[in-house]
């Protein structure tokens, strides 16, 4: 079965079963571009900002950007894993919000076990999403949109629409933000570590090859005896875990949680970071390491806009145009493919 999965995962585009003249070369060029584009876009942004206002690249600026990028990175990594199987998870940012509120509620009384319990809950939510998508065959866009609404309501009810401040055991999680390495908080470096783990999972394991095979061609993967149902459930569980880690990063930075506070608007940045990181919107291609650069790029956009001299009233417009342009440059697309 491993050989069959590898064949599906590494298949080349063809016409009538035959690769047209020059097609293989063009495919390699396109593949190389999508592998390097996220890094090149981020480096280009750094150069522009460094020229316009070098102060943004000093230790304080680096700390601010990486701190902002940390929760975006976790959400984007979970989203990238789900996009890789040809689906989408519109609820993973809401999972992070629920996770943050539960951390603020459980950490004072339960300590470290409260953190473990929160991650278990977010993984369970992801498993439920995966089961519903795989068993009911409801399109993931519609199903997780419904889950998003339920989780937003759960966040409001659980927090009583109030900001929950951590009064006890805060040091257990605050250290994740206050501890720095190369001017970046530990939450960001944990995100980088998670990206490396996800990369290893996708590149070196049968499970990861199965995920990519499903994203490239689910019917062919099924015919090749790839266990699509458990793989989908595991993928959504990974998205739930990533959302829980984003919740930890939010609380570590803010020392509190609420349904409308820090991290309440992570959905669009998370999707944008996954796409800017080179993840294919149609499935079958992602590189979690590049998603790190996607998250940094998305977190850096507001600073870049300010450095270029745009006023506050124009920043949303410029931000939207920038994201559209970068996604168009960095995302791999397959003609005729759709998100399932």
Automatic annotation (TrEMBL):
A molecular function GO annotation: transmembrane transporter activity
Membrane-spanning segments: 31-53, 60-82, 88-107, 114-135, 180-201, 233-254, 266-283, 289-310, 317-334
A UniProt-annotated Pfam family: BPD_transp_2
Matches recorded under InterPro entries: ABC_transp_permease
Major subcellular location class: membrane
Subcellular location: Cell membrane
UniProt keywords, alphabetically: Cell membrane, Membrane, Transmembrane, Transmembrane helix
Protein's membrane topology: Multi-pass membrane protein
A GO cellular component entry from the record: plasma membrane
PANTHER family attached to this UniProt entry: ABC TRANSPORTER PERMEASE PROTEIN YPHD-RELATED-RELATED (PTHR32196), RIBOSE IMPORT PERMEASE PROTEIN RBSC (PTHR32196:SF72)
Protein's name in the database: Ribose import permease protein RbsC
Species of provenance: Gemmobacter lanyuensis
Name of the gene encoding the protein in the UniProt record: rbsC
């Amino acid at each position: 079965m491993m050989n069959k999965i590898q064949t599906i995962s590494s298949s080349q585009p063809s016409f009538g079963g035959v690769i047209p003249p020059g097609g293989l070369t063009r495919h390699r060029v396109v593949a190389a571009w999508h592998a390097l584009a996220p890094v090149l876009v981020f480096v280009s942004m750094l150069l522009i900002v460094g020229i316009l206002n070098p102060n943004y690249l000093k230790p304080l600026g680096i700390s601010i950007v990486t701190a902002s990028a940390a929760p975006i990175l976790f959400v984007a990594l979970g989203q990238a894993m789900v996009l890789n199987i040809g689906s989408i998870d519109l609820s993973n940012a809401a999972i992070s919000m629920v996770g943050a509120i539960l951390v603020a509620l459980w950490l004072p009384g339960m300590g470290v076990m409260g953190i473990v319990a929160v991650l278990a809950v977010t993984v369970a939510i992801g498993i439920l999403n995966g089961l519903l998508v795989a068993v009911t065959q409801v399109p993931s866009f519609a199903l997780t949109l419904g889950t998003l609404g339920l989780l937003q309501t759960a966040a409001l009810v659980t927090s009583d629409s109030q900001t929950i401040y951590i009064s006890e055991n805060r040091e257990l999680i605050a250290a994740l933000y206050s501890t720095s390495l190369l001017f970046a908080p530990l939450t960001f470096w944990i995100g980088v570590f998670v990206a490396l783990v996800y990369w290893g999972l996708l590149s070196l394991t049968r499970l990861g090859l199965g995920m990519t095979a499903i994203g490239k061609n689910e019917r062919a993967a099924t015919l090749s005896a790839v266990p699509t149902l458990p793989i989908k459930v595991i993928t959504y569980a990974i998205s739930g875990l990533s959302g829980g880690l984003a919740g930890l990063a939010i609380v570590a930075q803010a020392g509190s949680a609420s349904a409308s506070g820090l991290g309440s608007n992570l959905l669009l940045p998370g999707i944008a970071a996954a796409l800017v990181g080179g993840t294919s919107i149609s499935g079958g291609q992602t590189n979690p390491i590049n998603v790190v650069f996607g998250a940094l790029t998305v977190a850096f956009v507001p600073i870049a806009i300010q450095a270029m001299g745009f006023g506050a009233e124009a920043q949303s417009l410029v931000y939207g145009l920038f994201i559209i342009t970068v996604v168009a440059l960095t995302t791999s697309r397959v003609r005729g493919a759709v998100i399932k």
